[in-house]
UniProtKB/TrEMBL annotation:
Keyword Cytoplasm part of the UniProt annotation: yes
Localization: Cytoplasm
Pfam families associated with the record: I_LWEQ (PF01608), Talin_IBS2B (PF21896), TLN1-like_RS (PF21865), VBS (PF08913)
InterPro entries referenced in this protein's UniProt entry, alphabetically: Alpha-catenin/vinculin-like_sf, I/LWEQ_dom_sf, ILWEQ_dom, Talin_IBS2B, TLN1-like_RS, Vinculin-bd_dom
Keyword field contains Repeat: no
Organism: Characodon lateralis
Domain I/LWEQ: residue ranges: 562-768
Main subcellular location of this protein, as a coarse class: cytoplasm
The name this protein goes by in its record: Talin-2
Amino acid sequence: VTQLAGYFEPLIKASVGVASKLSDHQQQMTFLDQTKTLAESALQMLYAGKEGGGNPKASHTHDAIAEAAQLMKEAVDDMMVTLNEAASEVGMVGGMVESIAEAMAKLDEGTPAEPEGSFVDYQTNMVKHSKAIALTAQEMMTKSVTSPDELGALASQVTVDYSHLAVQGRLAAHTAEPEEIGFQIKSRVQELGHGCIFLVQKAGALQISPSDSFTKRELIDCARAVTEKVSLVLSALQAGNKGTQACITAASAVSGIIADLDTTIMFASAGTLNAENDESFADHRENILKTAKALVEDTKMLVSGAASGQDKLAQAAQSSAKTITQLTDVVKLGAASIGSDDPETQVVLINAVKDVAKALAELISATKCAAGKAADDPSMYQLKGAAKVMVTNVTSLLKTVKAVEDEATRGTRALEATIECIKQEMALFQSKDAPNKTTTPEEFIRMTKGITIATAKAVAAGNSAHQEDIIHTANLSRKAVSDMLTTCKQAAFHPEVSEEVKNRALMFGVECTAGYIDLLEQVLLVMQKPTAEQKQHLAACSKRVAGAVTELIQTAEAMKGTEWVDPEDPTVIAETELLGAAASIEAAAKKLEQLKPRAKPKQADETLNFEEQILEAAKSIAAATSALVKSASAAQRELVAQGKVGSIPANAVDDGQWSQGLISAARMVAAATSNLCEAANASVQGHASEEKLISSAKQVAASTAQLLVACKVKADQDSEAMRRLQIAGNAVKKASDNLVRAAQKAAFDKADEDNVVVKTKFVGGIAQ
C-alpha cells in the first residue's frame, strides 16, 4: 500500500508537466482526466482493502480489489495511447517501439495460467486484430502521400492492436494442437512485431520531414511488408483450425451481402430498381427455388460439420457462403424483373432473402462456437436453434417466391414473413450480448415515432383489407420494429444509464414488440375473417402498443439527464447543406480530373488501360453524384416553393426530422465521393488495393440510395425535379457498378499474374 501511494505524487507532478507541454487543449484535458481516473481507481482499491478489514482473501474484498486493479490497468493503457499520439505528432516514436518490443517479449514468457477460452476464441480475436493492423497499414500508405501529419495517430493504433494481438497470440499458441502449429503462430506474430516496429519508425521519420520522397517510399515498403506478414499470421491460424477459420471468412462474406441487400432495399423503396432487359419474374423463379434448396443442403452440412473434422467444416462453410451469394444475386434479378411500378413487392422479396442471410450468419457463428464440442454442450443446443431458424427462413422465402405472382395471397404472405422476422429480432434483443455501440436518448425517441406511424398504418390496413395496404404495412413494420429494438438496446447500454433505467428500457422494448406482434396477428385474422368484431380488436391491440411507446419515451427522458435539450430543426437549412455538399463533390471531381495514371514500363501496356478505366469510372461517379446533389437541391427548393415544407414549418418535428435526414444523406454522398477520389488516386499510384476502391464505390451507391429515399419522402412524384433526381440517382448507381466491376476484374487478373517460380537448385529451393 505504501509503495502504491508513493508512486502518485511524482506521477501527478509529471502528468501536469506533460499536459503543460501539449499544444492541443483537448489533448491536455484528456490526459489530465486519464491521470485523475488512475488516481481514483487506486483510491477505490485502498477503500476496498480497508472495508475488508485487512483480509484480502475474503471473496467480496478480492473481487472489489480485482475490479479496481482492472480499472487502473485500463487507465494506464489510455494514458499510454495519449502519450504515444502526442509524441508521434513531433516524430517521437520511441515509446511505441518499446511497447511493441515488450509485447513481443511476452510471447516468449513461460506457459500462461490455465486459459479461460478455447483456441477458437483466441483465433477469432487474433483475426480481428490482425485485419485491423493490415487496414491501418494500408491507410498509412495512403496518408503518407496525402496527409503525413495523420501518421502519428495511425502508428499509435498499430501499437495498440499489436499489443492485443500478442496477448491473444500467446494464449492461442498454448491452446493450439499440435504443438508445431502453436510454435508457428508465435514465431509469425513475432515477425509481424518486427515489421510493425519498422513501420512505426518510418512514420516518425516522415513526420519530421514530410517532403522526403525516399522516406515515403520506405514507409510504403514497410506497410506492404506488414500486410504480407499479417497474411502469414492468418495462414498459421488457418492451419490450426481450418474449419473455424473458414467460418470466420464466410461470416465476413455474409455480413457484406446483408449490407449490400440493405442498399438494394433503399433503391427499391426509391422506385429505381429496374431490370436491364425485358424479362418477367417467371424467368427467375426456378433459379431462386433451386438455389434456395441447395442452401438447405449446405445448412445440413454445416450442422454435421460442427461434429466432424475441420476439413468437412471448412468445406461446408465455403459452400454455404458461395450458395448465399448466388441466391442473393438471383433474388435481386427477380426483384428487378417485377419492375419499379411495384416497389413494395420488390422490398418484400429482398427482405425475404435478407432474413435468410441473417439466419445464415447466426448459424455460421453458432457452428464456429460448437466445433469440436461434446453433444451435450450448451453451444450444441444453440447450433440446433440456429439451424431451425435457418430452415424456417428458407421456407418463408420459398413461400414468398410462390406468392409474388399471386395477388390474392401476396399481402398475407408478406405479413406472415414480417411477424416471423420480428419474433427473431425480439429473441436477439433479449440475449445478454451487449451491442457494438451505444446511441443517444434523442435517437431512441426518434425511432419510437416510427412505431407510432407503423401502428396507425397497420390499423388502417386491417380495416381496409386491401393487399397493397397490407404489403406496405408489412415492409414498414419490419423496419420500424427493427430500428426501435436496435436503438433501444444501444441507448440502454450507454455507460451513463443507470441499471434501473436500463432494465426498464429493455422491459418496455419487449412489451412494445410483443404488443406489435399481437397487432399484426390480429390484422392477419381480419384478412382471413373480416368481421366487425375482429376489426374492433385492432383498436385494443393498438392501445397496448401506444402504452408501451409512452413508457419507452418516458424511459428515454430519464436517460437524458439535466443537460439535454430538444433541438429545433429549421427545414430550409437543408438546401444550404445540399449546395455545400454539391460544392464539396465538385471540388473532389476537379481534384480527380487532375490525376493521371502512373507511368509504367512498356511491357505493362495492358494495366495502363485498366488504370485509365479506373480513373474514367471514378470521374463518372464524381460527375454523377454532383448532378444528383444538385437535383436534390432543386427538389428541395420546389418543395419550399409549393409550401409543402415551410421556412417556419407547421409540423416542426416532422419536417425538421425529414430535413435532418436529407442533410445527413447529402453529407454522406459528399464524404463517400471524397473517399472514392482518394482511393482512386492511391490505387492508380499503387498505394492501395482494389478492395479499398470497391468498398469506396459501394459506399457511394449506398449513400446515394439514402439520399434518394430522403428526397422522395415529401416530393411530388410527377415533378420535373423528381424526374431529374431519379435519372441522376440511376447514373450514380450505374457508374458505381462499372467501377466495382473494373476493380474486381483487375484484382482477379492480378491474382492470375502473380506466378511463383520455385528454384530447382537444392540450396536455393530451401532458402526460398
